[in-house]
Each structure stands twice: as structure tokens, then as C-alpha cells.
Specification:
The chain is mainly α. It has 2 domains: 1-48; 53-134. It is 64% helix and 3% strand. It is built from 5 helices and 2 strands, in the order ααβααβα. Strands 1-2 form a two-stranded antiparallel ribbon. The chain starts with a helix and ends in an 11-residue tail after the last helix. The model is unreliable at 133-137 (pLDDT under 50).
């Protein structure tokens, strides 16, 4: 009986740890690919394209990429916090705390409110002052014709 329980617990632990390793291994691999991509851009002297910027054809204006990232991260964090609150709530059913809400709920409430705060920052920061107007091709050509090249730095001694 005891060995059967131990085998089941080892199997469940192995399953969850392998899922955990696969997810975080994939995320680390994505980070590594992004890093390598940035190195290639830097070697060629180029700026990487903004991945989260809206196209000018869609809105006529470019959104600040950090605003969109902040919104997305807020949604993810709030969802994880809400899921933790739902998962931790049954721990308090037999406790003497009011409505069964005890200190263990902080593990869900803190990420929930951090995520809601990030979403609130995104909502309150949405003004026209935070958006940059998109440049059209004529403005870019005019700026390129009238600009002077930057001189190279002096040689090192």
C-alpha cells in the first residue's frame, strides 16, 4: 500500500516537474533567440523593429510599445492572481477566519491587485499626448535630403 502511494506521488511529481521544465525551457529558448536577433541587428548597425507598435495604416498613429506591454502583463498577472485566489479559497473553509479568507489568500490577492494596477496605469495613460504621429514617406524623404551626416568619432590614441 505504501509503495503504491509512493510510486503514484513520484509519477505525479515527475509529470508536473516535466511540464514546468518544458514551459520554462521554451520561454528561455525564446529569450535566447531574441537576444541573438538583437546581436545580429547590432552587428549590422540597425535598429530592431518595434514588435508591439500598431501600424500607421490601422490607426494613423503609433502606440508606445511599453504601454501595450504593460497592459498585456497586467492582464496576465491579474488572471494568475485571480486563479490563485480561487484555488486558495477552499483552504479557509474549516478555519475560524471571516468568510474563510485568511493570510494564505495574499498569495493570490497581491498578483491580482498588481495586475489590476498595471491595467489601470494603461487606461489612465491613454491620451493623445502619449502617441506619436506616424510619419509618411514624403516627410522621411524630406528629412533625409535636408539632414547632414554625423561625422565619425576621432580615432582612439
Amino acid at each position: 500500500m505504501l509503495t503504491e502511494v509512493a510510486i503514484v506521488l513520484c509519477g505525479v511529481t515527475l509529470l508536473f516537474s516535466s511540464i514546468f521544465a518544458i514551459i520554462f525551457g521554451y520561454l528561455a529558448y525564446q529569450r535566447w533567440l531574441t537576444h541573438k536577433e538583437l546581436l545580429v541587428y547590432a552587428e549590422k548597425g540597425l535598429l530592431p523593429p518595434a514588435k508591439n507598435a500598431l501600424l500607421p495604416e490601422q490607426t494613423g498613429k503609433l502606440a508606445h510599445p511599453n504601454a501595450i506591454k504593460n497592459r498585456n502583463r497586467g492582464i496576465y498577472t491579474a488572471a494568475i492572481g485571480f486563479a490563485l485566489c480561487i484555488g486558495l479559497y477552499p483552504l479557509g473553509w474549516r478555519s475560524g477566519f471571516f468568510l474563510g479568507v485568511g493570510p494564505w489568500m495574499l498569495f493570490g490577492l497581491i498578483p491580482l491587485f498588481v495586475g489590476l494596477t498595471r491595467i489601470l496605469i494603461w487606461v489612465l495613460g491613454k491620451t493623445d499626448d502619449n502617441f506619436q504621429p506616424a510619419r509618411n514617406a514624403e516627410a522621411n524623404n524630406h528629412a533625409a535630403e535636408n539632414s547632414t551626416p554625423i561625422p565619425p568619432p576621432p580615432p582612439a590614441e
